[in-house]
Amino acid sequence: MGSPPSASLKQNNLIFLVFIVILFFCSMPDKANLCSNQSSVNPSAVPYKSSSNISSLETLQLDGYFSFDHIDYAAKDFGNRYHFLPLAVLHPKSVSDISNTIKHIFKMGSTSKLTVAARGHSHSLQGQAQAHQGIVINMESLQGPEMQIHTGELPYVDASGGDLWINILHETLKYGLAPKSWTDYLHLTVGGTLSNAGISGQAFKHGPQINNIYQLEVVTGKGEVVTCTEKQNAELFYGVLGGLGQFGIITRARISLEPAPKMVKWIRVLYDEFSKFSSDQERLISSKDSFDYIEGLVIINRTGLLNNWRSSFNPKDPLQASRFISEGKTLYCLEIAKYFSPDESDIMNQKTESLLSELSYISSTLFLSEVSYVEFLDRVHLSEINLRSKGLWEIPHPWMNLLIPRTKIIEFAQEVFGNILTGNSNGPILIYPVNKSKWNNRTSLITPDEETFYQVAFLSSAMPSSTGRDGLFHILAQNQRILDFCSKAGLGAKQYMPHYSTQEEWQAHFGLQWEVFVKRKSTYDPMAILAPGQRIFRRKYLSHDAGHL
């Protein structure tokens, strides 16, 4: 056993080492240029685990625990396109578990390649909450102070970063209160949506969710636990909001509340001209006493559209609605809602009729419904249950979200809905305007340089193994055509929940805010430990020169 290894064994070991190195670089998120351009990335097929890193982590004194085996789930997300296997999953029971873990990695310095990603309800689209051979933190296991609700003059709720918005809704309703701004889907974590923005049909009125936060508790990339507000540690406060997880992990948030309504008047109408549709949307978001929720949908070549609506809505004119033909048309659906309490229904109906009388929709397509506030806000969950029952939830979701300046939306619609998207769509297409005056420009979120801009969301689902129009390759190519058009036409569009392959693209995305973003990174996460799945910074020391990251 003491004899030296043979030459052939040395050669085999060398070949194996070269293979591992090639595999490693081809599976790194920020090394896409070294590998073929794939629509799906799956380096978890050959897991590699560093025993020294595992031993190092096992020395930590934690309230929770690490998992090193059977952690494939942490390499999956809702997008179902990127699969980067971590070294370990941390199940924290306290904020100190998160702090101690990050502090431990930070102290290891540049000798360690370990990174950390916070994972909420796994609704990321492109591996943003994954950490290749790093540590994924299961935020939903975080325990701490229970949700605390303050009912004073400025009501708020203190919630964990791992709490789901649906649970916050149910808890705050016990006090007759609720958050002001939502996302369309509520089974998401607080930390997850606040790291992006949190946008829905209330954003024109209250701004996104990141505009409705009083205070945060954050664990930085140095492992420091920091409480921050707009006046205390303000740079971290605004940096973390919309900061894509780059500066810290949100472990607690103080969320603004308002008196909660009990009922919702839910309305849908159709347009066959985009100019009338967008004009009405813009009028509504500018009105002082408008609806409480305003969104829109693009519907392409949908057969029996109004008949499908009848399961949830009632037509104002059943006879005329039955004669309406949606097949072969591109239609625009205005979806609006008015909140009310049962004893205010008469006043609400008068206001609703007055607002509707000023709109230019197709009269035969007016559909109405009255539902509870909870039923309205949690409406997408019913679709989830249905899709899961059919095995259509855990499939690739090559979603793309864009923010388009108001002055360019007609040009955008003509090209995208007239020329690029033909035949039908592979999922809902949301489109609605918001007022920038309701958005705080000190956060990390990047928006177009106009007072009013549109959120346009292409929420496509790709059928596994399909090579047709509903396949992943076709949808990705279609998305790229839209991005190429926006770029060549100089629309000034910005991606929401952005995804880029190179730092040059990220720099172009942030524009003049890039230097601020880099400075915040060097201050709060100088070793680039956090959120590697965003593919913005590489895991090494960041110099103060933004050109040498």
TrEMBL record:
The keyword Oxidoreductase applies. Its EC number is 1.5.99.12. Its cofactor is FAD. It holds the Pfam family FAD_binding_4. GO terms for molecular function: cytokinin dehydrogenase activity; FAD binding. Residues 1-32 form the signal peptide. Belongs to the oxygen-dependent FAD-linked oxidoreductase family. This is cytokinin dehydrogenase. The lineage of its organism: Eukaryota, Viridiplantae, Streptophyta, Embryophyta, Tracheophyta.
